[in-house]
Amino acid sequence: MKPLSRDALARMVALHLPNEGFVNLGIGAPTQVADYLPSGSGVMLHSENGVLNVGPKPPEGQEDWDLINAGKMPISLKRGGSYFDSSLSFAMMRGGHLDVAVLGAFQVSREGDLANWTTGDNGSPPGIGGAIDLAVGAKSIWVMMDHTTRDGRPRIVERCGYPLTARKVVTRIFTNLAILDVTDNGLVVDALLEDMRVAELQALTEAPLLALGKVRTIKQDGAVLA
Description:
This protein is an alpha/beta fold. Helix content is about 15%, strand content about 25%. The chain has four helices and 15 strands. The longest helix has 11 residues, at about 5-15. It starts with 5 loop residues before the first helix and ends with a strand.
């Protein structure tokens, strides 16, 4: 069983975004989603440093380092894109104008608690950043992450052991093994990597999982089959 690559995971998320939705991509892995948006989807990507209608990563050698996302990585701008200051950008985030925010995470609990900010233990500068504004301002919070840590510990847990960004905000979890929906009844398996069983996924997940109805199949390229 081979987990999805980071590119395949980004493609899987991109294929699920709502048509013509306003979507923020968090720092790190979620920024790759911009490279896989289907043509004609009408999705408008927002970057918290003040850019709207973000395009895919520019080809190597064609980067404009005055045009970057919140993670300081070069981006392109689609036709009709715009720039604005941080106050307006955060007003969009806090004012409920974003349909989806796709964020990375260290942990997510069975109730949708989100832990995704660094305390400085890993050598990075500590700080919660704009994730706290996105977590309470966007209409829907999707998490995109590896299913387990590098040493095999579950990231989807009964109760988060890291400091929380926000409580009960995550609605959907995309991992390199599965898609899970956070519901009032618990975590429901929506899709599972091909050739993997729900019991195998449960063994890698601390929080209990539910399989209600037919579970969709995730292919190695990130496509999901009904």
